[in-house]
Write a structure and sequence with these properties.
By secondary structure, the protein is mainly alpha-helical. The chain is built from 2 helices and no strands.
Amino acid sequence: MAEGQNWLQRTKDYINELKLEMRRVTWPNRKQVESTTVVVIFSVFAFAAYFAVVDQVMAKSVNGVLKFFAK
């Protein structure tokens, strides 16, 4: 039974430490969240466009090489 109490005490300690740590967190305000969201969305579209172009170039290159050696 001592092991069960030990587990229970460790769980309570963990939850208390978690609550204490969550009080120390500095949360971003709405303006910060909105601005970083815009940056993330823009970055996603920029990377998507970049990879679409790279994919097209690589596909044409590979097809060209395959056609060359298929002759």
